[in-house]
Amino acid sequence: MAQIKLKLIMERSSSGGSGGCGAYIPGGEQVEGRQDTMADISALLSGIRETFGDRVDISVMDPRSIFSFFDLFRYRVRGTDPVWILNGRKAFEGVPARDELERSIQSLL
User: Fold this and answer.
1) What is the pLDDT of residue 1?
2) Which of 54, 60, 88, 105 has the most CB atoms less than 10 A away?
3) Domain of life of the organism in this record (predicted)?
């Protein structure tokens, strides 16, 4: 059984967790739109986990983290839109439709 690696590079909420610095975050003033995006992404990731189970290894990285430094250049991450990486290739920017994401994953299995 093939294992697909899904990496999501997106800004996590600056209101919770550790590292609560007071730095300006572009797009941070659009809180309502960002909450909708977070809800959409959460639903997508839950759906992927339901549909594919352990066949998809999901990791989420914050672009502000030092650990994502090389990925920002490798995948040409710009702005605050989420970037979806499937098996080392940039698949989507923004929030894809669920059926698009599932088709892309299915084609790799």
Assistant:
1) 58
2) 105
3) Bacteria
